[in-house]
Write a structure and sequence with these properties.
The chain is an all-alpha fold. It is built from 16 helices and two strands. It has one domain. The radius of gyration is 19 Å and the shape is globular.
Length: about 300
């Protein structure tokens, strides 16, 4: 999808600068502008982000902030690299297909019909698990970025109400692309029901869980499943309020997406699979969130 690999020598500035400014991920997120109007600035240039976030123009000061942000990210005793790993992992487990063919195309309508041979809609249980694990990954990344314990569910839920910019866009995409479209308007209740009937062994067989398991509080899969259930249940009120506040329904979201993705009414079951495979919205906006938080901290330390 045009992203740099996760290597030792890359800086947070590199990660931002390598974000593609076009492609399916960007177009899909733009389709959600009606949910977060004028709140998301799609930064793909770290120096531009520096100027906007700091409100400064002095080059010497900006260079000092940039260097400090890079130092903070590179410091493994901080939680920033772990947060980046989480943002990447939850998007990488569904990328078995050659999505790069789409990544470099700009300003085109993408025909879902062209890719049906590659796509298989997920079973509801698999979709529910993946949605839940994205929320848990967001919770864990939040705690790592803010240097608080990983089981700080209450702090995370309280912070959701204040989410803005790229963070709010990420949660909007999660609600719309991973919740409403594949699972319907009452997806939060349906997901919690799935979790209540999920066994630790079923959870252990999920690739995303395998990737982030070490970060989830708990001594074994059963206790980790308990944390996941409780973590998701704690976000239900926020999810319901978010959907109600923005009058979100599957039809509304799909209507907005039709400006960017060509799909016929009889192929809507494949839309969630298309978005799952051909977008990196979690990693994309997560990279932006990390960079913004690093800049905000660095400003206070130079």
């Amino acid at each position: 999808m045009g992203f740099l690999g996760f290597g030792e020598k890359e800086t947070i500035a590199d990660f931002v600068n390598e974000l593609p400014d076009s492609g399916v991920t960007v177009m899909s997120l733009k389709a959600l502008d009606f949910v977060v109007p004028d709140e998301w600035t799609n930064f793909t240039d770290f120096d531009e982000m520096l100027r906007v976030v700091t409100g400064e123009e002095d080059e010497e000061f900006l260079e000092s902030v940039k260097n400090r942000a890079i130092e903070l990210y590179n410091d493994k005793s901080e939680g920033y690299q772990s947060a980046m790993r989480l943002y990447r992992l939850v998007d990488s487990t569904d990328k078995a297909l050659g999505a790069a063919a789409l990544a470099n195309k700009a300003a085109e309508r993408y025909s879902l019909l062209s890719f049906l041979d590659y796509l298989t809609p997920k079973a509801d249980t698999a979709q529910a698990i993946d949605l839940t694990l994205k929320i848990i990954a967001e919770l864990l990344a939040f705690t790592k970025i803010n240097g608080i314990p990983g089981d700080s569910v209450g702090d995370f839920v309280a912070a959701l109400a204040d989410y803005g910019g790229e963070s709010k866009m990420r949660m909007a995409a999660l609600v719309c692309f991973d919740g409403l479209i594949p699972l319907g308007p009452d997806f939060a209740d349906a997901v919690l029901n799935k979790l209540d009937n999920l066994t630790p062994s079923e959870l252990a067989g999920n690739d995303t869980f395998s990737g982030i398991s070490e970060d989830i509080p708990g001594d074994d899969d059963e206790s980790k499943l308990g944390f996941i259930r409780n973590g998701f249940a704690a976000t239900q009120e926020w999810i319901g309020s978010f959907i109600s506040e923005h009058n979100l329904t599957p039809d509304v979201v799909i209507g907005q997406l039709r400006d960017y993705v060509e799909v016929s009414d009889d192929k809507l079951d494949y839309l969630a699979a298309f978005l799952d495979v051909f977008t990196n919205y979690f990693q994309y906006t997560g990279t932006q969130t990390l960079a913004v938080r690093l800049i905000e901290r660095a400003v206070n330390e130079v």
